[in-house]
Please model this.
Amino acid sequence: MNSLCGMTLIFKILSLYVLSSSAYNPCFSAFGIRDSEHIRRSSIRKFFSVYTSPSLIQLPVDSCWFPLTKKDLDFVSQSSEDGGELSSDHPGFQDEIYRARRRMIADKALQYRHGEPLPVIDYTPTEEETWRTVYRRLRAASRIHAVDEYNAIVDDMEASFGYGAGRIPQLHEVSAFLEGRTGWTLRPAAGLLPARGFLNGLALRVFHSSQYVRHASRPFYTPEPDIVHELVGHAPLLADPDFAALSQEIGLASLGATDEQIAALAACYWFSVEFGLCRPAGGGGGIRAYGAGVLSSLDELLHACGGGGAGAGAGNGVAIG
Model:
């Protein structure tokens, strides 16, 4: 059993515990889906395969809505944070040009609707140079400290469509690669989504991805997910069948979950998909990274896997997604 296969098995045990923590979830009462003890993922899968109409289903007042189709994610995406609103400690807070640029890219994401071509961003020379600087350092470190599955997929991506240090890939290029491998697709996000909406998207094998680039003044740091975090950290392992299944398991478990269950699932996601580490089968080669927050931050990667810090400032302080 390889390391990612083992992680999938561990999460299945955790998610069954999360879903069984409450005796009954009213979000499913409209359809009568419950077994004699607890809601289980088998029920969710049955529901998911049968109820495929895209409309916003009217549930009882004690119920919660969740997406049934990819088109329903048009509604979910509108709940994202404004990508142009930056906190006072953000590296780009006082850079009006950068903030305007962020708002423009965020607006494209908010205007996007399922079925349309994914937005194409004409990245500036400064943004391209930031990508090149970070990608080259991360790729050199990941060859040593990332799990083998990650490195094999990145090699395939570099050979397939020009993914690499040369230019920032467009979302549609990476999405097409993922869809051909595991059925996953990318969707633009204006900013951070609430945990419920983000996790719900995973159930449909859709990953919400930002398209903006971190501020050039601190290329090895970002306080929120940017294109480096999304396409270097998350995207490659979504092309691995075991990891793709793990990510969807988390999403399926979130459909109709209570707020308490969402918090528990978000914690599982945080300590696995975002910041997961493991040892290869047999224990050789030391600790390896598979979490996106580690794989997309040079400091995090070197610190977590035994190589010391990069001396470039704190690692990515990224939230879910």
